[in-house]
Amino acid sequence: MTPPQRRRRHPKEEPPEPPKAAPAPAGQDNPKEPERLYVLTGGGEGGDRADIDLVTLIVARADVPPPAIQPEQSALLRLCKAPLSVAELSAYLNLPFSVVTVLLTELLAAELVQARAPIVRRALPDRSLLEAVMHGLQKL
């Protein structure tokens, strides 16, 4: 014998469908779209890129960006008033590293920014210096 099954008095309501993402208004493309990134980098023209890695520091040479540059390059110049690494610039602009290197290569060619190698510290400090500091602290 099977147990009787209960029926609900009120049928269970289905949860409402989540709202669909509205398409972006004209002229405001999503920067993650490949077409947009292709346009930002100049359509693959040129080819040589500056020797830049993630920790290269970028500093702007110009205070005011020239009016003829792309908005992304203008944003790069505004961010680079103080030295920033390429990784930080990529994160702030929400652009892939490869796109940022292409934009920076154009800015370097126009001499609007300067690339600096990061400060490299020695693996181990000089032992004699550490001993001198230790003896100096012990005398205090």
The top level CATH class name of the domain at 47-116? Mainly Alpha
Low-confidence stretches: 24-29
Strand residues, percent: 5-15%
Mean pLDDT: 76
Helix content: 25-40%
Spell out the helices and strands N to C.
Answer: HEHEHHEH
- Overall outline: flat
Beta strands, count: 3
Account of the protein in words:
Helix content is 36%, strand content 7%. With 140 residues, the chain is mainly alpha-helical. The chain has a domain at 47-116: Arc Repressor Mutant, subunit A (Orthogonal Bundle). The chain has a 3-stranded antiparallel β-sheet with strand order 2-1-3. 13% of the residues are buried. Residues 24-29 have low confidence and may be disordered.
Provide a short characterization of the protein structure.
With 140 residues, the chain is mainly α. Helices cover 36% and strands 7% of the residues.
Secondary structure: elements and pairs:
Blueprint (H helix, E strand, L loop, with lengths): L33 H7 L16 E4 L10 H9 L4 E2 H8 L3 H13 L3 E4 L10 H13 L1
Antiparallel strand pairs: 1-2, 1-3
Give keywords:
about 140 residues, mainly alpha, Arc Repressor Mutant, subunit A, three-stranded antiparallel sheet, 3 strands, flat
